[in-house]
């Protein structure tokens, strides 16, 4: 959103305190927009691509994902062995059983030359249908750009900073949108797209959709932040913990369940801080001797059954894991099988760690085990990704992304129109000639700083630079004003 039409033509040097505050907010909005616009366009475009990942995958990899349904499927160990026969030097990192009779089994592997491939296997005859590079396909690249701009941790922090500054844009834009003299439907609730005045046309095309889209865009920002590197990690450490008594007397490692997400989304956000339990060889000896058989049969794989991929998948299915769940094999002697379901409906999420020797379920975390905040995060993420209520959900998030792109483009056009043609090149709204009462701006900075440390720190830096440097050094003042 942007300034009202009267602000463009304002020439008075005598300003009321309210008017001075308005111009200060306008200046903040301007600088925030210059920083956020490139990121917002990138995030919206890549978000749209990943939003329709199910449809794109089905269209682009139909010959790999779909098979002719058969009568009897091969054991999963044989299906995985078929993949290993084709890629003998690769390590199996994850298995996704076929989600429907006409779908292939998906086996994730890491090759000797550090490629991550998804191998598609016909579950009825073991035929390897082909593979997909999980690091270099359209949807994977879009997700990486969306999360870290393809430059790792630095990109992650930049995206987080831009998202937080996006909140500053929304708050300041809402203030600028509010009628400050008299209310008029035209230009406030209805854009005057018929106007021959280019400034009014672009201003209304920016401000009015911005008002209607503010909740959607704010929702996208807030539900995306839990996955960010700085704020998201801190937020998870505070709200993503579980009481230790959920799995008393179970050996735990220092590795967290969230480490399984290094190659993509495997486990839900809510369990990222869950310590990975450890398998113990002693449980294997107990299992072989059939000790404590009643509790083991109730809590995991039946004592008389070999603990392998087949029995683990059967166990997951018997415990209600929804189709699409993945199985991550044990890593090392103390590793565990991890069954994780990240379905469209977050209330059906499942995360189970299973002892590789005894088949005992060492941890079983479901929706009812989540706290209020993790539940809100998981529900928000599902809607953010367009998963929760199907195609209407995707279309709603598409609308939000398109509004974000519209605001970015119209904001850039307005800046280009009003920038100085002869002197200066930034054309920021001038600092008010009288310093206004700083209590309200400082309160805003304090609140944002406490909630989002990166944006708070950057706001302080920008305010100090703006007040003590950009507005006082003549050469810089000509450039930035």
Summarize the structure in words:
- The strands form three sheets. The protein has a four-stranded antiparallel beta sheet. A four-stranded antiparallel beta sheet has the order 7-8-9-10, covered by helices on one side. Strands 5-6 form a two-stranded antiparallel sheet.
- It is an alpha+beta fold and 481 residues long.
- β2 and β3 form a beta hairpin.
- It is elongated.
- It is built from 17 helices and ten strands.
- The N terminus is likely disordered.
- 50% of the residues lie in helices and 11% in strands.
- α2 crosses α7 and α8 crosses α13.
- It has three domains: 208 residues, no CATH class; 81 residues, Nuclear Transport Factor 2, Chain: A; 126 residues, no CATH class.
Helix run count? 17
Question: How much strand?
Answer: 5-15%
**Spans of at least 5 consecutive residues with low confidence:** 1-15, 285-298
Q: Specify the structural class.
A: alpha+beta
State the distance separating the first and last CA atoms.
Answer: 20 Å
Average the pLDDT over all residues and give the rounded result: 84
Keyword list:
four-stranded antiparallel β-sheet, 481 residues, alpha+beta, 17 helices, elongated, 3 domains, Nuclear Transport Factor 2, Chain: A, disordered N terminus
């Amino acid at each position: 959103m942007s300034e009202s039409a009267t602000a463009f033509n304002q020439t008075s040097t005598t300003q009321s305190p309210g008017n001075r505050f308005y111009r200060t907010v306008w200046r903040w909005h301007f600088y925030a927009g210059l920083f956020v616009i490139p990121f917002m366009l990138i995030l919206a475009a890549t978000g749209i691509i990943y939003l329709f990942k199910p449809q794109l995958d089905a269209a682009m990899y139909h010959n790999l994902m779909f098979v002719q349904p058969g009568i009897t499927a091969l054991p999963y160990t044989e299906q995985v062995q078929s993949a290993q026969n084709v890629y003998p030097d690769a390590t199996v990192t994850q298995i996704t059983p076929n989600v429907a009779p006409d779908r292939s089994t998906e086996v994730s592997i890491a090759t000797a030359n550090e490629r991550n491939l998804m191998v598609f296997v016909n579950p009825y005859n073991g035929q390897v249908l082909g593979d997909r590079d999980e690091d270099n396909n359209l949807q994977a690249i879009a997700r990486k750009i969306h999360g870290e701009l393809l430059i790792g941790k630095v990109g992650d922090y930049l995206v987080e900073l831009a998202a937080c500054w996006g909140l500053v844009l929304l708050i300041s834009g809402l203030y600028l949108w509010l009628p400050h003299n008299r209310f008029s439907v035209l230009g406030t609730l209805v854009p005057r797209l018929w106007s021959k005045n280019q400034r009014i046309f672009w201003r209304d095309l920016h401000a009015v959709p911005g008002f209607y889209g503010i909740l959607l865009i704010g929702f996208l920002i807030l539900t995306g932040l839990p996955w960010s590197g700085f704020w998201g990690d801190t937020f998870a450490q505070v709200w993503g913990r579980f009481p230790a008594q959920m799995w008393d007397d179970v050996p735990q490692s220092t590795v967290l369940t969230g480490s399984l997400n290094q190659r993509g989304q495997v486990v839900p956000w809510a369990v990222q801080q869950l310590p990975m339990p450890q398998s113990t060889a002693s449980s294997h000896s107990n299992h072989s001797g059939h000790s404590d058989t009643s509790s083991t049969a109730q809590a995991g794989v039946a004592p008389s059954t070999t603990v392998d991929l087949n029995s683990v998948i059967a166990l997951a299915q018997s415990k209600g894991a929804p189709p699409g769940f993945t199985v991550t094999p044990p890593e090392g002697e103390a590793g565990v099988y991890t069954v994780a379901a990240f379905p469209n409906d977050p209330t059906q999420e499942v995360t189970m760690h299973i002892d590789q020797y005894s088949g005992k379920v060492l941890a079983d975390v479901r929706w009812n085990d989540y706290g209020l905040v993790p539940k809100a995060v998981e529900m928000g993420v599902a809607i953010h990704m367009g998963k929760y209520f199907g195609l209407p959900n995707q279309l709603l998030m598409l609308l939000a992304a398109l509004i974000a792109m519209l605001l970015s483009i119209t904001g850039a056009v307005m800046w280009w129109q009003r920038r100085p043609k002869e002197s200066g090149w930034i054309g920021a709204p001038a600092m008010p000639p009288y310093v206004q009462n700083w209590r309200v701006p400082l309160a805003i900075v304090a609140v944002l700083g406490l909630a989002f440390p990166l944006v708070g720190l950057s706001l302080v830096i920008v305010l100090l630079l703006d007040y003590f440097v950009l507005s006082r050094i003549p050469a810089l003042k000509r450039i930035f004003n």
